[in-house]
């Protein structure tokens, strides 16, 4: 019953093979109500089980394919069925698709390393709490690396689970989304522009209705120029905001990219109605939620 | 004729009963034994602070001198429990301060401790001796200062991996100017610098100090001056070990280290530079415990160090030790009982380090006393697990973290079922197990059948169906703590084995498929369980069939707790009420 090699899947949907197998497996499943008719690739679309550095969770799809359950967030169901039916209502424009969405078959780690090196860097979104290492240790290691790289720089090893910006090789910030039941963590250093960041965020939170969010072509030298991105963001249902070094909440896209990654401590995707003007009460709200 | 032993005789007999488990059994025999036992128990352990009310505990044990409490679920260590969930120390401190002012020792793990708590402790317990906080949060260095300044009989002050609001190093200067009774001081988790002169003077007037763990900001150039003032140390946690020293300083430090004739345990060693390893040679032969898990030393430098540690019983390292280094350990550290190997890279997919399953196999062959292992590795094989089990049937704690979720045996592509089967079959005394890699329901069937002494089990990304949970709950007789994340089940198994849950301390399940409806049923079925749903979305707005994000189920005689935050719902017992306001808040 266990699959050792995962079939290739389309990132969001299911492969032919998978759908067939899901029929078999369904019989042995109990207790999961069919709330919708589509076979939801629940786990894969949530991207919770993505391996660090890999494109997608290969084996996850196999294992969770037949499980039929509704996404805990209301409204997401509609998103899934739209997505699978290829409806244009679904938010991610084809232009933003990268080969990140293809899943390679499971291979032993050695081979995987070379394929990972060859492929463009995937969004290095990490699963919360995996591998199971205490924050204290993670932070200490992050500071060690910064010491090695930053020369005489005295580290500011935080104890609250977030790496600060600076000369560190990895710049993990938490990303939360209003209405989402979980946080993600991303390494800002793996992105070179707002465009890349926004595609990554789209993928991460794809099972929630995000709206027309991000890349609409127009790649200038730094991808989209900042003001255009801001306009786009303002037009959509959701906006991305971040907490900077001074603990102020700002709209993403207002400052040059380099400055942004140096000052960003946390990201939060919130409804644009909440974020307009980023009034003080919104900041309070952000703080109390976090 | 009164056949009962006189109280005094019973009391005397019970004074030889140390373990709390035995004492718990003793108190179940009859009323008079219960009474006698409770009046004589000095060390009280409460594994889940919400299982019983502080008032009840304070009343039951009039002679208590030591209290140990644990708060948040273990998975809180890995950020799976949202901030604000609970685990507040205050109600306990308050209750004890009012009723048990002779309390001397408080040990807290994964709890929220505020400065008010610390000030209350300092103000209320005149003989207070021991404060050990592990993975706690919520307090600042001001609270520590209160303890330091007011507790005149303080012996142990240990902050282990706590999250402290660090307002500066002044707290150290608050210890009384007269000679102190300090035996152990651990401030390794603090960030800010303490004044060297404060520390030197403290050491000079603490003749009983046996254990000192410095924080990283204590630089290498001052270590010598500190050690000179505390040559009696048995445990030393250094600060950073990477600053540049001139030859004279090196010579002095080498000498100071060699003067530590009683030193048995060495830790800290942040960023240990290879050229400083020889400084440690003099202490190696006596060491029973060595924590290199923050020392970014690589092979082959590590060999020089480890080959000299023939008495080592406990070794914590990073995977920089590689298979080669572990071979050396297998050859040289014949007394080894506990091994932990942590991953060194922040980016776990791109390790250049050759640590494989072979390293653990070597150690299991060479170290006959090895009984506790925590091993992070990228991938594993069944064959290795089988060898390890055959070599070391004396494992009590086996935690393997194959870092790639769902990774099969990389040689055969099979699940690791057979490997873990060997572990639970051979290691009859296994108390704690963490599994990982690709696992089907079969693995858990094996665990259910064989792991009869297993008390704690951690599972992630495993299993196929409800059967997995069913095997565990129906098979593992001694199971007390079960924590599961990202596994595809399990209303049926939970409801079928509901009674089992009252024999356990707690069950944690996150990102599984437990429906809200099942949570309700479970709670209504089992009166002495708190079924907590931890989810951003109010259960009322969702259908019964929708899966909940996280559940935490624990037995309790205290009823639903009243300090839940907005994202935690304790399911109400009565079916008509469902989820009540009272239970929510």
From TrEMBL, chain A:
<keyword id="KW-0539">Nucleus</keyword>
<feature type="compositionally biased region" description="Basic and acidic residues">
    <location>
        <begin position="1"/>
        <end position="11"/>
    </location>
</feature>
<comment type="function">
    <text>Aux/IAA proteins are short-lived transcriptional factors that function as repressors of early auxin response genes at low auxin concentrations.</text>
</comment>
<protein>
    <recommendedName>
        <fullName>Auxin-responsive protein</fullName>
    </recommendedName>
</protein>
<comment type="similarity">
    <text>Belongs to the Aux/IAA family.</text>
</comment>
<dbReference type="InterPro" id="IPR003311">
    <property type="entry name" value="AUX_IAA"/>
</dbReference>
<dbReference type="InterPro" id="IPR053793">
    <property type="entry name" value="PB1-like"/>
</dbReference>
<feature type="region of interest" description="Disordered">
    <location>
        <begin position="111"/>
        <end position="130"/>
    </location>
</feature>
<keyword id="KW-0805">Transcription regulation</keyword>
<keyword id="KW-0804">Transcription</keyword>
<keyword id="KW-0927">Auxin signaling pathway</keyword>
<feature type="compositionally biased region" description="Low complexity">
    <location>
        <begin position="115"/>
        <end position="128"/>
    </location>
</feature>
<feature type="compositionally biased region" description="Polar residues">
    <location>
        <begin position="138"/>
        <end position="158"/>
    </location>
</feature>
<feature type="compositionally biased region" description="Basic and acidic residues">
    <location>
        <begin position="24"/>
        <end position="38"/>
    </location>
</feature>
<dbReference type="GO" id="GO:0009734">
    <property type="term" value="P:auxin-activated signaling pathway"/>
</dbReference>
<feature type="region of interest" description="Disordered">
    <location>
        <begin position="1"/>
        <end position="38"/>
    </location>
</feature>
<dbReference type="GO" id="GO:0005634">
    <property type="term" value="C:nucleus"/>
</dbReference>
<comment type="subunit">
    <text>Homodimers and heterodimers.</text>
</comment>
<dbReference type="GO" id="GO:0006355">
    <property type="term" value="P:regulation of DNA-templated transcription"/>
</dbReference>
<keyword id="KW-0678">Repressor</keyword>
<feature type="domain" description="PB1">
    <location>
        <begin position="170"/>
        <end position="272"/>
    </location>
</feature>
<dbReference type="InterPro" id="IPR033389">
    <property type="entry name" value="AUX/IAA_dom"/>
</dbReference>
UniProtKB/TrEMBL annotation, chain B:
<keyword id="KW-0217">Developmental protein</keyword>
<keyword id="KW-0539">Nucleus</keyword>
<protein>
    <recommendedName>
        <fullName>F-box domain-containing protein</fullName>
    </recommendedName>
</protein>
<dbReference type="InterPro" id="IPR041567">
    <property type="entry name" value="COI1_F-box"/>
</dbReference>
<dbReference type="GO" id="GO:0010011">
    <property type="term" value="F:auxin binding"/>
</dbReference>
<dbReference type="GO" id="GO:0009734">
    <property type="term" value="P:auxin-activated signaling pathway"/>
</dbReference>
<dbReference type="Pfam" id="PF13516">
    <property type="entry name" value="LRR_6"/>
</dbReference>
<dbReference type="InterPro" id="IPR032675">
    <property type="entry name" value="LRR_dom_sf"/>
</dbReference>
<dbReference type="GO" id="GO:0031146">
    <property type="term" value="P:SCF-dependent proteasomal ubiquitin-dependent protein catabolic process"/>
</dbReference>
<dbReference type="GO" id="GO:0010152">
    <property type="term" value="P:pollen maturation"/>
</dbReference>
<dbReference type="Pfam" id="PF18791">
    <property type="entry name" value="Transp_inhibit"/>
</dbReference>
<feature type="domain" description="F-box">
    <location>
        <begin position="5"/>
        <end position="46"/>
    </location>
</feature>
<dbReference type="GO" id="GO:0005634">
    <property type="term" value="C:nucleus"/>
</dbReference>
<keyword id="KW-0927">Auxin signaling pathway</keyword>
<dbReference type="InterPro" id="IPR006553">
    <property type="entry name" value="Leu-rich_rpt_Cys-con_subtyp"/>
</dbReference>
<dbReference type="GO" id="GO:0019005">
    <property type="term" value="C:SCF ubiquitin ligase complex"/>
</dbReference>
<dbReference type="Pfam" id="PF18511">
    <property type="entry name" value="F-box_5"/>
</dbReference>
<dbReference type="InterPro" id="IPR001810">
    <property type="entry name" value="F-box_dom"/>
</dbReference>
<keyword id="KW-0833">Ubl conjugation pathway</keyword>
<dbReference type="InterPro" id="IPR001611">
    <property type="entry name" value="Leu-rich_rpt"/>
</dbReference>
<comment type="pathway">
    <text>Protein modification; protein ubiquitination.</text>
</comment>
<dbReference type="InterPro" id="IPR041101">
    <property type="entry name" value="Transp_inhibit"/>
</dbReference>
């Amino acid at each position: 019953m266990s699959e050792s090699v995962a079939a290739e899947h389309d990132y969001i949907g299911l492969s032919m093979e998978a759908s067939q197998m899901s029929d078999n497996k369904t019989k042995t499943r109990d207790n999961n109500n069919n709330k919708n008719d589509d076979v939801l690739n629940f786990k894969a679309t949530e991207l919770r089980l993505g391996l660090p550095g890999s494109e997608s969770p290969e084996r996850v799809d196999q294992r969770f394919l037949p499980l039929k359950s509704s996404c805990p967030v209301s409204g997401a169901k509609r998103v899934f069925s739209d997505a699978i039916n290829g409806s244009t209502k679904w938010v991610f424009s084809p232009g933003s698709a990268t080969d990140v969405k293809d899943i390679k078959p499971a291979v032993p780690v050695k081979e995987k390393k070379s394929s990972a090196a060859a492929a463009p860097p995937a969004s290095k979104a990490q699963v919360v709490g995996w591998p199971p290492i205490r924050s204290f240790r993670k932070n200490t290691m992050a500071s060690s690396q910064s010491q090695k790289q930053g020369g005489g720089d005295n580290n500011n090893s935080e104890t609250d689970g977030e790496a600060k910006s600076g000369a560190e090789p990895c710049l993990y910030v938490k990303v939360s989304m209003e209405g989402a039941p979980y946080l993600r963590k991303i390494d800002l250093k793996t992105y070179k522009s707002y465009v890349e960041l926004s595609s990554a965020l789209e993928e991460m939170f794809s099972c929630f209705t995000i709206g027309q969010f991000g890349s609409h072509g127009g790649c200038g030298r730094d991808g989209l120029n900042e003001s255009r991105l801001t306009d786009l963001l303002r037009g959509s249902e959701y906006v991305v905001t971040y907490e900077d070094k001074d603990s102020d909440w700002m709209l993403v896209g207002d400052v040059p990219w380099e400055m942004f990654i140096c000052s960003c401590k946390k990201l939060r995707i919130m409804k644009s109605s909440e974020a307009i003007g980023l009034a003080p009460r919104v900041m309070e709200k952000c703080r109390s939620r976090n | 004729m009164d056949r009962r032993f006189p109280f005094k005789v019973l009391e005397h007999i019970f004074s030889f009963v140390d373990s709390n488990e035995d004492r718990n059994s003793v108190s179940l025999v009859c009323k008079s034994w219960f009474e006698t036992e409770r009046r004589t128990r000095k060390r009280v352990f409460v594994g889940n602070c919400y299982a019983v009310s502080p008032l009840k505990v304070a009343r039951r044990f009039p002679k208590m001198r030591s209290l140990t409490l644990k708060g948040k679920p273990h998975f809180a260590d890995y950020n799976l429990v949202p901030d604000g969930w609970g685990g507040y120390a205050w109600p306990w401190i308050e209750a004890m301060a009012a009723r048990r002012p002779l309390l001397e020792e408080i040990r807290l793990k994964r709890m929220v401790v505020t400065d008010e708590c610390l000030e209350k402790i300092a103000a209320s317990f005149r003989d207070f001796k021991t404060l050990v906080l592990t993975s706690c949060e919520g307090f600042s260095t001001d609270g520590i200062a209160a303890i330091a300044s007011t507790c005149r009989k303080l012996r142990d002050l240990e902050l282990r991996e706590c999250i402290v609001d660090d307002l500066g190093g002044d707290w150290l200067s608050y210890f009384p100017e007269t000679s102190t009774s300090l035996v152990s001081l651990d401030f390794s988790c603090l960030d800010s610098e303490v004044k060297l002169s404060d520390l030197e003077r403290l050491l000079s007037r603490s003749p009983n100090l046996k254990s000192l763990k410095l924080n990283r900001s204590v630089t290498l150039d001052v270590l010598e001056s500190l050690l000179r003032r505390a040559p009696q140390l048995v445990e030393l946690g250094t600060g950073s070990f990477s600053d540049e020293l001139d030859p004279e300083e090196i010579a002095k430090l080498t000498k100071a280290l060699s003067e530590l004739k009683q030193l048995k345990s060495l830790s800290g060693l942040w960023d240990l530079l290879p050229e400083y390893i020889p400084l440690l040679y003099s202490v190696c032969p006596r060491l029973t415990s060595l924590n290199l898990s923050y020392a970014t030393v690589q092979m082959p430098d590590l060999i020089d160090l480890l080959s000299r540690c023939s008495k080592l019983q406990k070794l914590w390292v990073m995977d920089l030790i590689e298979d080669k280094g572990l071979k050396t350990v297998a050859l040289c550290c014949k007394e080894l009982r506990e091994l932990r190997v942590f991953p060194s890279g922040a980016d776990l997919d791109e390790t250049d380090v050759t640590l494989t399953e072979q390293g653990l196999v070597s150690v299991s062959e060479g170290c006959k006393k090895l009984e506790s292992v925590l091993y992070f590795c990228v991938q594993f094989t069944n064959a290795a697990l089988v060898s390890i089990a055959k070599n070391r049937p004396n494992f009590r704690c086996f935690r393997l973290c194959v870092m790639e979720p769902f990774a099969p045996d990389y040689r055969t592509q099979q699940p690791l079922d057979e490997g873990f089967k060997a572990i639970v079959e051979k290691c009859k005394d296994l108390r704690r197990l963490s599994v990982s890699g690709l696992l089907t329901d079969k693995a858990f069937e094996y665990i259910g059948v064989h792991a009869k002494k297993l008390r704690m089990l951690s599972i992630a990304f495993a299993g196929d169906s409800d059967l997995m949970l069913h095997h565990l709950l129906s098979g593992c007789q001694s199971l007390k703590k079960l924590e599961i994340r990202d596994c595809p089940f399990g209303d049926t198994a939970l409801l079928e084995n509901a009674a089992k849950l009252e024999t356990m301390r707690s069950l944690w399940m996150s990102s599984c498929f437990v429906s809200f409806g099942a949570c309700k049923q479970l709670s209504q079925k089992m009166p002495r369980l708190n079924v907590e749903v931890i989810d951003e979305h109010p259960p009322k707005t969702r259908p019964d069939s929708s899966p909940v994000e996280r559940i935490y189920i624990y037995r309790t005689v205290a009823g639903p707790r009243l300090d839940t935050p907005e994202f935690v719902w304790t399911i109400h017992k009565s079916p008509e009420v469902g989820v009540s306001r009272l239970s929510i808040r």
